[in-house]
C-alpha cells in the first residue's frame, strides 16, 4: 500500500494540463505526480523542473538522459524509477542492444566511451558518500562540455528526488512501467517490490 493515495488525474486541472508531458515520455501520468498534486504547487513545480531537465539542448540525447536516470535509480534501489526510466529510454529511441544490455554498459560494445563516462558519472553521483572525483571529471571533459555536464547532473539530481519520493511513498507502479521493467530488467532480478 502506498503511504499516500494518488488523487484522480482530474483533481487539479493545472497539474493535469502540465502532466500531458508524461503521455509522450511514459504513455501515462505517473502515480507519483498524482500523489504530489495533494499540494498542487509541488506537482506543478516538479513537472516544470522535469520538462526543463529532460529538454534536448544538444548532444545529451533524450535516450541517454533516461539511461542516466536508470543508472541513478538502480544505484539507489528505487524499483519504481528503474522501470520508468527504462520505459522512457525505450520510448525515446534507445537502441535495442543498449536496452537489453544496460546492466553491462561498462563493457558492452553497444555503448560508446562518451556514454560510459556519462553513466559512470550517474553511478558515482548517486552513491552515498558521493563518488564524483577528479578521475570522473577528467573523463567527462574528454567527451562532454560544461553545459552537457550540467544537463547530466540535472537528470541525476531530479532522479535523486524521485527515488526518495517513490521509495518512501511506496508509490503504486503502473502497468506499462511493470511491462518495461519485466522486459528489460527482469532477467537481472527486477521486480516491483513494494510498488504494488
From TrEMBL:
Entry superkingdom: Bacteria
InterPro entries, per the entry: AhpD-like, CMD-like
Coiled-coil residues: none
Claim: Oxidoreductase is one of the keywords in the record: yes
One of the record's GO molecular function terms: peroxiredoxin activity
Domain Carboxymuconolactone decarboxylase-like: 40-120
Record keyword Oxidoreductase present: yes
Signal peptide (from-to): none
Keyword field: Oxidoreductase, Peroxidase
Pfam families, per database record: CMD
PANTHER family to which the protein is assigned, alphabetical: CARBOXYMUCONOLACTONE DECARBOXYLASE-LIKE DOMAIN-CONTAINING PROTEIN, SI:CH211-175M2.5
Protein name: Peroxidase
